[in-house]
Amino acid sequence: MTSSSTTLSLVDTDPAELAVDAIVIGLHSQTTDAAGPARAADFAGTLLLATGAESIAAAFDGRLTETLALLGATGGPGEVIKLATLGTVTAPLVVAVGLGPEPSGAAPAPETLRRAAAAAVRALAGAERVALTLPLPDDEDGPAALRATAEGALLGAYRFAGYKTRPQPTRRPPVAAITVHVPDAGDERAQAEISRAGVVARAVTRTRDWVNTAPNELRPPSFADSVATAAREAGLGVEVLDEQALAAGGYGGILAVGLGSEAPPRLVKLSYDPAIAAADGSVKRLALVGKGITFDTGGVSIKPAQGMWEMKSDMAGAAAVAATMLAIAELKPAVAVSAYLPMAENMPSATAYRPGDVVTMYNGKRVEVLNTDAEGRMVLGDAMARACEDGCDYLVETSTLTGGQVVALGKRVAGVMGSTDLCQRVQQAGDAAGEPTWPMPLPDDVRKGMDSEVADISQVNASMDRAGHMLQGGVFLREFVADEVPWAHIDIAGPSYHAGEPTGYWTKGGTGVPVRTLLELVDDIAANA
Ligand code: BES
Ligand code: MN
Ligand code: ZN
Q1: 314 is an annotated ligand-binding site residue
Q2: Do residues 14 and 126 share a domain?
Q3: pLDDT for the residue numbered 44
Q4: Residue 375 in marked binding region
Q5: Judging by DSSP bridges, how do beta strands 285-290 and 394-399 pair with one another?
Q6: Cβ–Cβ under 8 Å, residues 209 and 160
Q7: Quick check: 37 pLDDT over 80?
Q8: Which residues surround the ion ligand 2 when the cut-off is CB under 5 Å?
Q9: Closest residue CA from atom 7 of ligand 1
Q10: So what's the pLDDT on residue 409?
Q11: What CATH number corresponds to the domain at position 76?
Q12: Residue 409 Cα distances to 83, 168, 289, 406, 412, angstroms
């Protein structure tokens, strides 16, 4: 496994003179008053070169937009048009990447830059060195634009190594070295953004690698080993509970789900303690919890065969949290962060848990199992209760929890449930990261529907009514959070995995959502408590 190791740097010299394999410029589409252009050359009026492309345009004697129009450019988002420069500038190739209409009086949104940088870098696979000169504002919005551009470029260069036994002659290797053109390459803030982007991109690509790994290669013991090894190398605290320790500790939910598999369950705890404690000792403690089902067959309540392979991504939450911790170890924020990763493989077998079982969870609550496919909340309930027992000021949990999330919000927008203030902060962090979330309620009637005949709560609606499916997950998890702890549950069933063709900075497979949201949230907590 493992992906590319693309490098990233800044440059402030004239893009027309850069000795690279390709220069990427931005191209806007604009509406004209004309009734509508009739021939290719007339389309030039609908194109607008973005800021940053000036010296390249000058080298083309003002004929660059016209040439791009002849090549069919529209400036639409995601469009990539390549143009051989034939000696006009030092680089042999100019690549115009579409940015859509120019926002009136403003620079493009960070997410526009993030996607465009990625689209260009993806289209340039095979090139070794690529420079980007995109419209980065030279004001207070500059750092966010640079951050987005750098992240997008690195994530667009991601490729999962895969398992092919022969090299694929038609598959070109990802871009090796990316340079971003800025007004002042020596600027400390710009340098800091570039190094942060490198750390963040490594966390996202590590998440993608774990998610994309075949499920026979990543079962709870090997996933736990892989996480623990990386965490130890990063200098994090590591504690791994194996099946004996889980039994001794009373982790009924994790054990129940793990019963069906020959590969026993694990609970991995990672911890980061900031050396730079705030002077008044008021460092906040954040607990992160991620669902680590290494494969979800549904268990005895087995899933249909169609699409079941995608359930190798059912550990995306744990992978994202683990990778976030590795990034935190490098970024060293002034927040104490602990991560709890319950890992199990949900299999049907003679030893599997079954509908009708009553399970005693880590916090002592008894749960009536009605559908073994609702396994995520069983392992998460234990991990969240343990996090609260250890003590924390905030608890954020993320999981590929329900198909209901995908039905309600689709494949891009995660659902967020929990304490109102913390949910808002998660949403803001996600917006800054280009990982949108939407708040969802935890209604009383949904909780009422989960009253069990025999136990404290049933695992899903007592008559298996799928109404408010995503909300049932959130309502269940709330039972395992200590009363005073602000918490948020982020359901990433849709956004954590991209089954379609590559688009923007999303490659096929794991996306790395919500690593960047969690890192933004950590910065928010460090800055504002
Ligand atoms: N891992 C699935 C949820 C899921 C569905 C993730 C689609 C990604 C894409 C989860 O364990 C599950 O099976 N949920 C059930 C819950 C039901 C049995 C209450 C579901 O969504 O149908
Ligand atoms: Mn399931
Ligand atoms: Zn699952």
Answers
A1: yes
A2: yes
A3: 79
A4: yes
A5: parallel
A6: yes
A7: no
A8: 296, 373, 375
A9: 403
A10: 98
A11: 3.40.220.10
A12: 39, 37, 22, 5, 8
